[in-house]
Amino acid sequence: MASSTGTRPQLSYLTDQLNELKQKGTYFKLRVLDDEQAAVCHFDGKKVINLASNNYLGLATHPKLREAALKAIKEYGVGSGAVRTIAGTMKIHMELEEKIARFKNVEACVVFQSGFTANAGTVSAILGKEDFIISDELNHASIIDGCRLSRAKILVFHHKDVAHAEEQLASVKDQPGRKLLITDGVFSMDGDIGPLPGLCDIAEKYGAIMMVDDAHSSGVLGRNGRGTIDHFGVHGRVDIQVGTLSKAIGALGGYVCGSRDLIEFLYHRGRPFLFSTSHPPSVAATCIAAFDVLEQEPQWMEQLWDNTKFFKKELGLLGYNIGGVNTPASETPITPIIIGDGRTTMDFSKALFEEGVMGTGLAFPTVPEGKARVRTIVTATHTKDDLTQALEVIKRVGKRMGIIQ
Questions:
Q1: DSSP states of 10-45
Q2: Is 25-54+298-401 a domain of CATH 3.90.1150.10?
């Protein structure tokens, strides 16, 4: 049978939209990693210093995690065979959830297939069309999608503006329906930290449910990487904590932490949990090992922050806008190089790659129009030589393109 080729007329509008992206200079092709996700690796056959990965602590290639994955495959096979509520809850899944709950100092935890589904599945499960969501304007797309799926009324507050969040809450305090106040712990595009103490105060004042997405702070902030709740000491004041197993933890998945009743409810109503096959046992075992590493090897977090401070300082001295000029200021290993124009940003990213630095360009709709940037993330496994070499390339390319003087 002949294979189909080309785009049929029914989908020709997609080709038109792709051509628009090409005209704007924001079209991209996926870069393919040829080896391990490491500080220095090969993309598309080219050796580069990797400043684009969420592998904050280098755990994606840690020997203890590799060993745990191989052991689990030998003992349990490669798949779970079912969704959690039918036949796919394995003992190792429960061990992981109990480990995370202890680590986060909460009653219970449930693991989802990704951080995205954890956010979207939780918000859409616990709220309905008669309820209200008060959400930071720069919250992650998974939060936004969860809000839409819930059909609740959405009120957006200015980024990190506790006073405006309170105004929004006050405007609906006499309305029937539940109120959910939701924020990222660390914002993924700018690297700044959410104002959790102030938000907890107003959530308690108005009786709102308090929810935090801690994806980019798990393994990065707080004692041994316990996240922003620990960083700010607001244990017991956040009703729902969402985290990821795909970034600093080095593997794959998301999780929700909170009361036992919250987790039991999500067993019954969290659609991604109900309708997606559970993690392969090797992934669950890998994540368990990662939390052991967080507790037993604090040097990885220390090295991450040493590298972060060095890189931020040197990058700022080069004259780049790395946040704080009409944009939030980064407070974490996420350090954006804000260019503004989408085409220039993509050209800058390509030029860096050609000279051996992997820094991905991000333009609209990932970030607002006029705020395109190359987002850089240093990791614990970068050496000072790696970072110094990367800075030299960033300086040279920036001067050549007229981005810095």
A1: GGHHHHHHHHHHHHHT-------B-S-S-SEEEETT
A2: yes
